[in-house]
Request: fold
Amino acid sequence: MSAALLRTPWRRRRGLAASLAGLVLLSACTLALAAPDTRPGKAAIASAHPLATEAGLEILAQGGNAFDAAIAVGAVLSVVEPQSSGIGGGGFFLLHRAADGQDLFLDARETAPAGTRTELWIGADGKLDRDKSVNGPLSAGIPGEPAAYAWLAEHQGKLPLATSLAPAIRVAREGFPAYGRLVSAIGQRRPVLERWPASAGLYLIDGQVPAEGQRVRFPDLAATLERIAKDGDAGFYRGAFAASMVQAVRAAGGTWTERDLADYRVKTRTPLTLDYRGWRIVTAPPPSSGGIALSEMLNILSGYDLSRLDRVRRTHLTIEAMRRAYRDRAEYLGDPDYVTMPVAELTSPLYAAGLRASIHPEKATPSALLPGYAPPVEPTHTTHYSILDADGNLAAVTKTVNLTLGSGFVVPGSGFVLNNEMDDFALRPGEPNAFGLIGGDANAPKPGRRPLSSMTPSFVIGADRIGVIGTPGGSRIITMVLEGILAFVDGDAPAKVAANPRFHHQYLPDVVSAEPNAFSAEERRALEAMGHTVNAGERTWGLMNVVSWDRRSGAVEAGSDPRGSAGSGSAAVR
Reply:
């Protein structure tokens, strides 16, 4: 298959896509991880906050499994890390069940309300009104996180939902010390929070941003979580509480209806599965763009023996794989329930071979020479956690409220901020979004649709070692997971995988972003001599969390990203 295939009319490709889709599904089933002969005997959790990690371990100690722990960790993060995620948002849950070797992807992405129409975000000048798309209830999709917890407890967990939510309820009621990332986020969003009394009242203390170390409590959130613990998802999506959310959202200019909430459902999907040089990678399908882009990059790189290359050439080839995958991902991908996509073609080794043939081994390919397209917006304030339990069950969870503290809008008495995921849609074709990027028709806002995402929770499975990996970081999530997988395959332990310096290329802008110390001065000059533009020494990004199990030695490890301020990262093995 040539690299030009995706530029041919869709109808001419449909037959091949259908046949390849069947092969991909068959491959995903036949490659499912068989139940190992031994159990790890230990559990490992890596998350963005110590209280969340401890909550997961607490639930495991009470007889819960990785899926019960996933509820506990996620719910505590909704309390202590509202700038990144919460029950007003959504996420993706990649699960592996040790008993029967089955992999499952739970899609708890937010959905567009029934009243969604493009005109809502267009200003009097005919352009996209950026304030409406990122601030206030008009920017909020219908949350999916509460439904995910109820589904996990009913279908995969061993403990009652109330038990798994108990640590989060306790933390919300008793409080916790404010830490650097939270304080910074509240300060950054303070002008928006002050627009609504409930928002300012929740996150400001006596009208001021809390100081580091100052105790913050969220009793209204505790009450909301107690309602979900008692009544399941009905306590959130139906009844008096749902009616109160709708009333507040509509009074502030949103379009939610009680039907929007009552109709919300999580979706179970088949994960994407691929082989990379003898390692099986299990990752996120649409509406994540991450798994497809990751598959495309790994398929391209599988044609090279990277271990035999010096670091400059290895980096050059990785950048070129990134460039081509990011060019493809925005044009074709959207909500799989509404958009027909050439997934099998994009993830095909044959297609990757065509792309690989276009890579010069010694020269950068200017993005302007590739067919033009710009990648979509993706959230930057997100969270990820990885879990392995003593029986070998796995959970990789990435969840978000989109931008920092989401929409900034709090329904009075709810205790949580609503997401602003509507900005993840291409609200106006050809119009730049919050990050100056452009989306396509496949990701257009329509009632009930789920916006495209880069969240890429993944499993890395080899003959002896298993890894669970993921990270926040907006459109850079995918390249971080790629680099993390390559490092894990090379033998790096979880702590090193999470700490390694990073680089990134996303097709446009045609620039290699690099963290401090990612490249030596000599390596940077060599890359520039190849034609790459390198922005060396940019800020750091991401907050990766990784756990692993070495089935040969029995070692269980966890690693959390050292980036960020106090309160960032917590890894434990017990």
Observations:
- The first helix runs from residue 10 to 30.
